[in-house]
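Why do we care about 3D structure at all? Because function follows from shape, and shape follows, mostly, from sequence. That is the central idea of this module. The next example makes it concrete: a single protein chain, its amino acid sequence, and then its structure expressed as tokens.
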Amino acid sequence: MYELTYNNDINKIISYIDRVVKYGNVDNISRTRYYYRYYEQNPEIEWSFLASMVSRNAGWNMTDLQGKWFPQVLSQSLREQMFFTYERANWLIFLDAFPQLMLHQLSKRYNTSFFHLLQHFNVSCFMQMEWQHFWQTNDRKRLMTALIINEQNVIQRPVVHHPFYKRQVLNSLPYVVQDWLHYSCVLFPTTKGELYGFSVHDFTDINERIELGKKLAWLLFHPAFHCGFRKFSEKTEHTGSRYDYQQYFRKPMERDTPFLRVAFPIVYHHRSDFTDWYQGKRSIKKWFKPIRIPRKYHLTKWYKKKQRHLHAGIEILNN
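And the structure:
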């Protein structure tokens, strides 16, 4: 995927990382691929596997907007705005996170810390402290939680609180209804046609999103299921279509969502506001608290039932 080597020219290191991040951050497909390949090379950074699986879900949510069902009930303008909201949030997270991952890889390779370079990529001082802590303690679980906390704060101001996304998408009636009825969920599939995960509720609440991330991390690395999720990731190329996992169902389903790169153009982003969300002033202890072990996470039957209800509702509205 890429080779990062050390020399005495810090500017060359920074420039090289910038180029790799640019190539990896082209779209949802490239992000998913880069996250997972990084995890294959650096399995101690478990967040990268989580990021690849959540990125798959982002792609499936995107192609839903151009699939068989949503265009029947959502206007083209709203669907475009929803796509750009997903795309913007995931672009921002990759822009912030992948330089961190590359500097870890460089530090590991040369057995010396390069985390002082994080400031050149506008990474929060919170993560600068957390990477130093990881370097000293090798505490994988704490780093996983820290990265979850960071990514959700990274998108809070520029996406969740941004007036445009808030007014046009997050407060729109279709989005609120979908959230209320728990139609949105993050799924971890297996090649046996099983689905695990959690429904998404109150996306605008950062505490809810962080708790969801922690629950997803717990599930993804659960000893009973982890191998199944790894097998799915290794065997299944991410196309953005929900057929990526529907193909494994016992009863085959028709492909009702397109390939992502057929459905959407490349979006060119820019970022001008690099305000540190942390700034050493916020109390984040509550976000490090352990989760309550979830009871319901096997979603195969629940998800299929929800999909049938959704499709039936759309058909009723159109008759």
